[in-house]
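Hello again,

I reread your note about wanting to compare the complex against the isolated chains. To keep things tidy I'm splitting this into two emails, and this first one only covers the full assembly. Below are the input lines as submitted, including protein chains and any nucleic acid or small-molecule components. They are followed by the predicted structure of everything together. The single-chain runs will come separately.
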Amino acid sequence: MSTRFPLISAKPSRLITVALSWFLFVAGACLYLYTAAARHRENPEDRVTPTIGQMVHGMFGAALTSPDQDVDPTQPATVVQRFSRGMLWKDTLATGRRFFYSMALLLPAVVLGLHMGLFPYVGAFFLRFVLFFDKIIALSLLPILFIAFGIDELSKIMLIVVGVTPTIILDTFNLARTVPGEQVVKAFTLGAGDFDVAYRVVLKQIWPRVLNSIRLNLKAVMLFLFAGEMIASTDGLAYRIALLRRHMGMDVIIPYVLWVALLLFLVDLAMRLVNRKLHPWFRES
Amino acid sequence: MVSRVLTGMPMIEIENASVAYGSPLRPVLSGMNLQIREGEFVCVLGQTGCGKSTLLRLVLGSERPLLGRVLIDGRQHCQPDRTRGYVPQKYSLFPDRTVLRNITFGGELSEFNLFGRLTPRYYRRQRQLNEEAMSYLRRIGMRESDAGKYPDQLSGGMQQRVAIAQALLTKPRILLMDEAFSALDPSTRKEMQQLIRKLWRETGTTILFVTHNTQEALSLGTRIIVLAKESPDHGSRVALDLPVPEPCHEEEIPRLVCRLESVSQINTEVDSVPGRDSVSVVLN
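Full-complex prediction:
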């Protein structure tokens, strides 16, 4: 059976690899366009599958018109002014601000996980509680959070804290534990103190892996952020998507979804590049 | 080199130390006694699982005996510190630091705290440390162009060379080496043995070298200690304590190898008297 077509040991050429990797994108787009065209032939007023033209128009509208009623649309303004007052920009800013607050709150989680992994007393104090906390379904706490913290920013940030920080704490904890004991002993014999070992040896070594772990959890951060925004907010990308659902505004919803995906992809890419640039010694295996 | 051994108090004293692991407790060392003087090059031999590394960790201070005590310069230590350098078999270098930064790390750590690098003195001292590290780099037979490499770009032998330089830069009084050359190929191993022997002569550091290779122990040490269990449910103790004649004659070696390798077997066959102290065999 030497002439059998190999599967695992197959070596596809570059052209075929590229073609295969883009196939589903093209097929998805074609299928959508075909469905949209067919539905519009039957009913020109169809709102479920907007055509490309409608989506471009909708997106320009979202980008250039202000969500506030008090801004007079007839007043002359440059494109930049109109864009900076537009829905898209304001929503992105609002969501972005919340996103960065939540990312900043992940740093204490990393520090806590590091200490839990290295200092047995800290580990004994926190580990069981964090493991328990990790099992709580964050979204089930949403009503409690709204009751306890009100429906303003704090409860949305708290939702992310409840949802994502236990994962980050436990990830960092495990990473800190995987650093070989020889390294810690070696650092002590070179004259290190406890905190030198924690920050100059262990944290420095696991930092690229911690960043990767945060990258993997970006989606969870966004998930909780969107849940919070959809239920109780007056701005933000998810608020807009939820609002447009009432008007069946698919011509804006679909571009918004793609825009969010693009933003998240860019954040992830930036983190990956920075990680590689800052840690040339780190090889993902 | 035996003349180098100073008279007076021993530097490392292990008194009746017992160590056991697991539950139910499985003894590793029981009632072990050992004294090491300053300037000695002691090789610890023994079969796998006989507690060689445990003995090293006792001296290192990363482990404490269940019973008995371990004194270094007459004091007990509860944690590894600068007086004892350490070269393990692997993971001896910090992967996030270049060769140069690995070697200077000892100086950085002992002179500057976490925020030390914010002071201008740090950068002045860094330059001095770099020069010192470069001279060590040449002494261990590495090129200056290797200084900027990361540990995973080096071969196993090179990594161990850097690890030795790193440990020696802080000028420890005792150097503890745990199977440090065991993962290296025979020719590299030979070079490393010559290197460590040379450095020992130059620095006069006390060295405790754990190995399972009898030839290696004979070519390195001034004194060889063989650990062996008297019976499977007892922990190990010093079964043979042998000063190596210096220089060791070539024709002596096969006889010594034979003698050292027979010790562990003798002790598992003969049911020794409990509480018996170490057998000291003095040649010449």
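For quick reference: Chain A is about 75% helix and 0% strand.

B.
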